[in-house]
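Structure, all two chains, one model.
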Amino acid sequence: GAVVSQHPSWVICKSGTSVKIECRSLDFQATTMFWYRQFPKQSLMLMATSNEGSKATYEQGVEKDKFLINHASLTLSTLTVTSAHPEDSSFYICSVGGLWETQYFGPGTRLLVL
Amino acid sequence: DAKTTQPPSMDCAEGRAANLPCNHSTISGNEYVYWYRQIHSQGPQYIIHGLKNNETNEMASLIITEDRKSSTLILPHATLRDTAVYYCIVRVRDGQNFVFGPGTRLSVLP
């Protein structure tokens, strides 16, 4: 299946700063990538769908101005958490569509906002 | 909302088969059954998927009932490394994102 990487794997930042998370599809050209968020002891929740060369599609309740998504190439999508606050602390996971419409997930990025 | 129902937790002895059930009574004719698992602090890992026939790969077997209203994921010889949360998801093949329910937390015990 597709190999997906994320960087960084974990990040700690101060409240009010911005954090960029990268998602790379290492062996698959992805026109679409997905960003999920997972709070402790909860399941994954889709935040947005990242489309190469066009604007991302956000799920209801997800602030597009706070979670900026850029999908500049077929192998890279970035999620920027702007003006992060402690409530944004979470596990952020991206995924890439693969064969037979499966999805392959990255290892995740754990964000802690102090 | 998730279209599947799974038990919240299960235990399995190491070396024994782990049978994880999933109910999807409202599944549509064009929806596939996918199984993923998530080991603690990692991204979900694809296991297997199927439409109506039973499927087997190097990781697991998927048994789908004839009416397709339920399925069972079978890990033939569970190891401690199989301890994870297992998600059963139904989705059309050319659908977009996956909708994750709470899954089943499988604990493989020594």
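Chain B touches chain A through 24 residues (CB under 8 Å).
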